[in-house]
Amino acid sequence: MRDDIFTKRRNNNLAFFLVLIVLTVVAMIITQYDAIKGFTSMAKALIWGGSNFYPDIKSLRILPDILPKLQETVLMSIAATTVASVFALFLSLVGSRTTRMNSIFSIISRGIASIFRNIPLVAWAMVLMMAFSQSSLTGYLALLFGSFGFLTRAFMETIDEVSSNSIEALQATGAGYFHIIFQAVLPASMPQMISWLLFMIETNIRDATLVGVLTGTGIGFSFDLYYKRFDYHAASLVVVFIVITVILIEVISNNIRRVIL
């Protein structure tokens, strides 16, 4: 019996990889992609990057310009994520199977979360640019809407995982809906929610760079500006500061997670 299960699993994995290989070959034929040329061009790209794309002494002149932009990007990401988490918390309480008021509100809430979550951040930025043009508000709203969908889904799953024992105990004492939420649901799920919030802040700081390229704001706009001017040394310095910032934020958030989890 165990051998049959192992054989079936192995055949399924083999079939999956065969389908994947066939799809890859078909995609290469349709797009006329030359795999050999692609691999050989990677070596040339690395050589070009090593000889051109690195910060030098002259590129340090742009520090007074990029540091405020970097600060703007970080603060905008934190603000958008924090505000989105507040709205996501309310919607997740309505949509969760544990705390929902009725099934209709739950279905509507889950539908809203699914719509917002499945629209890419770049698409949000492009749509919002039609209404608000290239501005900080456009980038802020794009990050907010993208975070809202993800956090709502994450918060719902976190609330659904709350143990039913404490909820049933409060219900047995005649506790009301809001009393159960504030005394049982939120205390049990808040550490994990904070962890999701920190993860979303890290993600948004990375994504804010791309949004800045589209909306003409923040550190992304600085990179786009220097790159299009062929000032590769300055552009590479921007990348270095983005990487350092992301690493610092990740270290801080990991330390917070160790404390709360």
Entry keywords:
single chain, 261 residues, mainly alpha, MetI-like fold, 10 helices
Task: Provide a descriptive summary of the structure in words.
The chain is mostly helical. It has 2 domains: 2-52, no CATH class; 58-260, MetI-like (MetI-like fold). It has 10 helices and no strands. It has helices spanning 2-31, 35-52, 63-95, 103-118, 121-132, 136-160, 164-172, 177-215, 218-228, 232-260. The chain starts with a helix and ends with a helix. The model has no long low-confidence stretch (mean pLDDT 82).
Write the layout of secondary structure elements.
Layout: H1 2-31, H2 35-52, H3 63-95, H4 103-118, H5 121-132, H6 136-160, H7 164-172, H8 177-215, H9 218-228, H10 232-260
Outline of the structure:
The protein is mostly helical. It is 85% helix and 0% strand.
Assigned CATH class of the largest domain: Mainly Alpha
CATH superfamily annotation of the largest domain: MetI-like
* 3D shape: globular
Order of helices and strands: HHHHHHHHHH
Approximate helicity band = over 70%
The tally of domains stands at 2
- The number of strands is 0
Q: Any idea what the CATH architecture of the largest domain is?
A: Orthogonal Bundle
Structural class: mainly alpha
Low-confidence segments, given as residue ranges, are none
Q: State Rg.
A: 24 Å
Number of discrete helical segments: 10
- N- to C-terminal separation? 41 Å
Q: Residue-averaged pLDDT, rounded?
A: 82
Kindly report the CATH topology of the largest domain: MetI-like fold
Mind describing the biggest β-sheet? Answer: none
- Could you tell me the strand content as a percent range? under 5%
